[in-house]
């Protein structure tokens, strides 16, 4: 990748401090030896003077090589996953000493650690991203010098961006859904039809397919029998994300703990990967306008579209975003709402989804360190007779207690809630929903 600024040929070269120092010391030693009549002083400055003269002669003969060594920046990968590495390659010209320096960025590891490396005509740095989003690589400062280090030139290359998609976490959960609503797929239906799961062996009836005749049973009973199967259906999975506000972990939490937005993005990527691998259709609806809407789709292409949309979400610290409302949803849609359950509009939206007949699961993305009451033990309420103004832990502890009422009301309404704690977070909820689907129901009279 070559930017327009890199296409300007011809670097402005200047003598280095080493060349100036060698010329001054060598010339001064020669002058003093002639003035004082002490030839031994020539031995002191002759090596430096000879090096300066050789450098000057090399400059006259091969000066265009250094001026034409325009640095070019190339990225090994434009998109990486969390924890992945992208190579940053800087090329100039063979035989030219090249030094490239990258500034440090938050949540980014550089190799080498100081972000500066010198090579012969080519320098390769490595950038490792620890958090999803857009990583700014640059501006890259490049210094080139000739083989003797007598002349140098420098160029600042404009920054470029690397997309960091959420980590490809494999969700440890079953693929069963409460209500399959498609006509073909991996989910077993209660309805009998074309499929591979055996329902029963029954007597042959007109209209049955000949290739489903069970010849073993037919030969034993002397009557034609056929295999009846259950249909296999797909479903539509809707992931609703709450990005209205990004709640940071508590100050006493461990370094690198995820924020509520980090947990939301990673949970969305894991859930989408899980159901897309099962052949379902997955879509994303963002209540906070931070993630662009992703229409329903299936297959590897949909996964690439979804993860790219997630990685392009910006981090506007402390910015409250307006609420977008979902107007309707197809009954039976498996809807996973990733939210810290702090906004009343989001809680009301969950009620609307339930009223529309969706199978709603809430993934709690509030950092566990928020509202932790264990840090309040032994904490003085007054200092020097005055009330302490640092009531941040107490305020969040009260807010979490108020939030527990909302959690209890949602569970009483039949909405399961699980805290996001990694790939196995949804397994208990999905297993309970699958068990509830197959449980016997009382017939209404």
Radius of gyration: 34 Å
Class per helix and strand makeup: alpha+beta
How would a crystallographer describe the biggest sheet? 6 strands, mixed
What is the helix tally?
A: 8
Could you say which overall geometry the principal axes of the C-alpha atoms support? Answer: elongated
And the CATH topology of the largest domain?
Rossmann fold
Parts with pLDDT < 50 across at least 5 consecutive residues: 1-8, 181-188, 382-389, 439-445
Secondary structure elements and pairings:
Elements: E1 14-15, H1 17-36, H2 40-67, E2 72-75, E3 79-81, E4 85-91, E5 97-101, E6 108-111, E7 116-120, E8 122-129, E9 133-137, E10 140-145, E11 151-157, E12 160-165, E13 187-203, H3 215-221, E14 225-233, E15 236-241, H4 260-277, E16 281-286, E17 294-297, H5 299-311, E18 334-339, H6 344-355, E19 359-364, E20 382-383, E21 386-387, H7 392-412, E22 417-419, H8 427-438
Parallel strand pairs: 3-12, 15-16, 15-18, 18-19, 19-22
Antiparallel strand pairs: 1-11, 2-4, 4-8, 5-7, 5-10, 6-8, 9-12, 10-11, 13-14, 16-17, 20-21
Helix pairs in contact: 1-2, 4-5
